[in-house]
Amino acid sequence: MGSLTLTITLSDILALVGIVAVIFITYYIVTTLKKLGLMADKINSILDTNKNNIDNTLNTLPKLVDNVNKIAASIESKGDEVGDIVSSVNEVAATVDDIVSAVSDVVDVFSQFRSLFSKKKFKIKR
């Protein structure tokens, strides 16, 4: 009987490695798509469960934006009023400083007069 010879070439090994790689990649893609499908189902379930809440929130958003715009306008107008009040207070403070300075000068003058007269004693000669 004759002997059986098996010859494996480099192209056979590369073909085998290629087939294994294609099988692995196909398995990975199928598994990933399956997980994505499960995730999409969960997301749909959550959206269905919360549909009323989502609709209410979406209906409320324009009102909220309106209120925020009103508040911003109010703050802006109050800011202008506060700026006017601050400038008025600064003017009053400057006036008070001027008055205090003037009163201080008058007090100094009176102190000088008092010290002038208290140092000299007037004697009446007879």
UniProtKB/TrEMBL annotation:
Which Pfam family is an annotated match for this chain, by its short name?
Answer: DUF948
Keywords of the record: Membrane, Transmembrane, Transmembrane helix
For the keyword Transmembrane, the answer is: yes
Domain of life where this protein originates: Bacteria
Transmembrane stretches in the record are 6-30
Protein name in the entry:
DUF948 domain-containing protein
